[in-house]
Amino acid sequence: MAIFSIVIVVIFTIVGITIASKNRKTKERVYILVGLTWIGIIEAWIPSGIVLIGYFFTNSEVLHPQLYFLIAIVGYPLTTMIWMTGFTEIVYKNKQKIFQIFFGVVGIVYEIIFLSVLFTDYTLIGEFQNAVDVAYNPIVSIYIFISLCQILITGIIIAIYTIKTGIPENRIRGYFLFIAFVTLFIGGLIDAAVTLGLLEIVLVRLFVISSAIEFYFGFVLPDYIKNIFKIES
Q1: Closest by alpha carbon to 170, among 103, 226, 86?
Q2: Please, which pLDDT band fits residue 219 given cuts at 50, 70 and 90?
Q3: Which of 119, 131, 133, 152 stands 20 to 30 A from 231 (CA)?
Q4: pTM of the complete model
Q5: Residue 108: which domain range?
């Protein structure tokens, strides 16, 4: 359901902006990098939201399939690069350049392949299940799977690193981050790679939405969550 795509875009964007804004207080660029990553993650849901809003006002097709796919996919290599930079701000700082070069090269190669297919035979990218939802073919679903695996693995590393600090506040942050990355991985993978019925789409996208809330708790840890777990500020 496209309405859930709009909800995902709005919630993830709010969470991303909230996390990025912490840079004003901490002066640590990791918050900007992580915030931008969280906004970039929802790229695949943006075009279905645009189509729904456009159809509501015009009662006609708003996006050509090529433009739909372009909006949905083209930015992911950049988002991956931003995330890996943020990841290495937290851990493996001494290997940051290596990560950036490797994922930069992989991203450029994928962009070339993706854009070549998009402008030669875009039907190879995916099939529309309805006016707003797409089941992606291997050229995209495999890339999304690999990207989600990268985010899952690096996210779990950050979560474990945070938990192991031994600080009560950080332990709670780590647990929330662990749950958030696992939830995002499962929800994002199913939504991108599996053909779903109406009920399944609703459940999966609610699952994805929950990951944003968990991620917000992990990175921001608002006072009311501290109070629930009896953590002193």
Answers
A1: 226
A2: confident
A3: 152
A4: 0.87
A5: 2-228
